Q: What sequence folds into this?
């Protein structure tokens, strides 16, 4: 009897271990390169828009680049359709449902008066020099106050951001692993799609001291555009002791497709990140774009002057902290990413850009950044 019970217990234990192994295997979706399992919290197939995984950014700041879009959590600008995420830019004129004004003479329409716009003003705020109530469009939701990002007033020759777009970031961050995003890039002059990462906490200080990882950023302009069009993208690391000492030029590479654009087909934009290296690639792990050695401090690798700002913080600092994922489409800007001519918008910023819309509106034939999936393996 004892022997029989022992055999039964032994069989039960074997079955138990088998179920653990099978259950673990089923839960572990291994990366195509066998170097980690899919992280559910950081991965998305975009069958729906999962608000537990993504947060919309809400701002008119221009992201420090003088960009011409405002980011809002509007279903017209970010939505899931046919199993993929669309980031779809629209015109502010349609969002307002009236002409964009350039001075104070325009009649008020709802929360617009003289084209004064707030993303977080409370109901007790009033418009400049009036008693007109001025409620915010997205009270308490503004995410970036720089450069009048939460409240902005149009003046003569300086309209509000003329384009509405979307920028979302993951609610989870990760340190080391593999990121793959399957995407199709947009077509249209001055569209600026990007897949990138920012530090969860600015442990080492303000940008770029705590780092930035750009897996992919491109332009929707045609391949004839001298600075680069939609047949190429760049990968970069931004790092440096302060904003005017960003040393990105040492960690920057361009991918160029000499036969096709990046807008006709789906591509995988990937990154592999370890304590000793970081590299980006397109389509598969053999097509490296940017490769950065992290086993030697960046400051020492490139023989920069002065003491290492991250001395004592780790060999691969500042890229030794958790980062979160950002997906967005920006539009134009004044920081030089889109060198301009008088025929484009010159140096007049958003007003000149919108005044010359007849030169670029017709090029927005496929303005959506399409994301099929985001996968993170660790």
A:
């Amino acid at each position: 009897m004892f022997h029989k019970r022992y055999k039964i217990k032994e069989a039960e234990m074997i079955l138990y271990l088998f179920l653990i192994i099978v259950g673990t295997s089923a839960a572990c979706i291994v990366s195509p390169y066998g170097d980690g399992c899919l992280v559910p919290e950081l991965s998305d197939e975009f069958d729906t828009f999962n608000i537990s995984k993504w947060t919309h950014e809400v701002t008119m700041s221009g992201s420090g680049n003088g960009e011409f879009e405002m980011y809002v959590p509007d279903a017209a600008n970010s939505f899931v359709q046919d199993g993929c995420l669309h980031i779809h830019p629209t015109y502010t004129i349609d969002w307002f449902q009236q002409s964009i004004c350039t001075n104070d003479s325009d009649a008020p329409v709802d929360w617009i008066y003289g084209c004064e716009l707030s993303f977080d003003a409370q109901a007790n705020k009033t418009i400049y020099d009036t008693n007109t109530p001025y409620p915010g469009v997205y009270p308490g939701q503004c995410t970036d106050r720089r450069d009048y990002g939460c409240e902005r007033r149009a003046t003569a020759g300086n309209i509000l951001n003329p384009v509405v777009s979307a920028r979302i970031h993951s609610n989870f961050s990760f340190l080391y692993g593999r990121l793959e995003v399957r995407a199709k890039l947009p077509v249209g002059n001055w569209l600026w799609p990007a897949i990138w990462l920012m530090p969860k906490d600015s442990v080492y200080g303000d940008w770029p001291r705590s780092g930035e990882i750009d897996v992919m950023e491109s332009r929707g302009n045609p391949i004839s555009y001298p600075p680069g069009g939609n047949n190429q993208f760049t990968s970069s690391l931004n790092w440096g002791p302060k904003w005017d000492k960003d040393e990105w030029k040492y960690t920057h590479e361009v991918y160029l497709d000499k036969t096709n654009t990046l807008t006709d087909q789906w591509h995988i934009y990937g990154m592999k990140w370890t304590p000793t290296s970081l590299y980006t690639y397109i389509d598969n792990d053999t097509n490296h774009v940017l490769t950065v050695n992290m086993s030697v401090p960046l400051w020492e690798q490139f023989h920069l002057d002065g003491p290492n700002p991250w001395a004592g913080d780790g060999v691969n600092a500042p890229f030794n902290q958790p980062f979160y994922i950002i997906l967005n489409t920006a539009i134009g800007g004044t920081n030089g990413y889109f060198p301009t001519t008088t025929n484009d918008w010159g140096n007049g910023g958003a007003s000149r850009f919108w005044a010359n819309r007849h030169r670029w509106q017709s090029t927005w034939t496929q303005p959506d950044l399409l994301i099929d999936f985001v996968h993170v393996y660790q």
